[in-house]
Write a structure and sequence with these properties.
This protein has 196 residues and is mostly helical. 76% of the residues lie in helices and 0% in strands. The longest helix has 21 residues, at 174-194. The chain is elongated and about 65 Å long. Mean pLDDT is 83; it is low at 1-32.
């Protein structure tokens, strides 16, 4: 995932996931902003600036005191993955699934992790699980498109997911738009060469 998408994900999801992913009901907010514990907010700031080793330390400390909250484990998994420690990332993400298996972003993160490890079958299952839980999860569509396009050599399926991503993403993504144009050109070329 690019740094832009990592920052976007962290910004959008981290604060809500602290309590929303736990087995306990979320705390009522007195205003529209969620107030995060200082230690957790510090960990998120480390993630935002890309200081993943510091984020890992802060999140490990935080999860010791909050073992039933899935959000910090999700962020720990992301920080480990960004640091290249894929085994620890998988362990943290599986902890999230043990706490709350219906969190689509966890499945999306696992899909990216499995793709990076070359386990394309598990990546495919993880992305499909994410979309089963949240059919409009734009990043899961984008990542599934990447898997179909670059790794599984299925351009028609990739095109479907890239186009769905563009429909869902309010900010037009020039990068994915270019991928769509390229795939449309390649699939037309393949079809034309297959004609007798």
């Amino acid at each position: 995932m690019s740094q832009h998408w990592t920052n976007t994900f962290i910004t959008l999801c981290c604060s809500a996931l602290l309590f929303a992913c736990s087995n306990q009901p979320p705390r009522p907010a007195t205003d529209t902003a969620v107030t995060l514990p200082r230690d957790y907010a510090r960990a998120l700031e480390y993630m935002r600036i890309g200081d993943y080793p510091s984020a890992i330390d802060a999140l490990q400390d935080f999860t010791q005191g909050q073992p039933d909250h899935a959000g910090p484990y999700l962020n720990l998994g992301i920080a480990y993955r960004q640091s290249g420690n894929l085994g620890a990332a998988r362990d943290a993400l599986e902890k999230v699934l043990a706490i709350n298996p219906s969190q689509p972003e966890v499945h999306n993160q696992l899909g990216m992790l499995y793709r990076e490890q070359g386990d394309f079958e598990r990546a495919l299952r993880s992305y499909h699980n994410a979309l089963r839980l949240a059919p409009d999860a734009a990043l899961a569509h984008r990542n599934l498109g990447i898997l179909y396009d670059l790794y599984l050599q299925q351009p028609v399926l990739a095109l479907d997911h890239y186009q769905r991503f563009l429909e869902l993403e309010h900010d037009d993504s020039a990068e994915v738009s270019n991928w769509v144009v390229d795939l449309e050109r390649r699939t037309r070329s393949t079809r034309a060469s297959a004609q007798p």
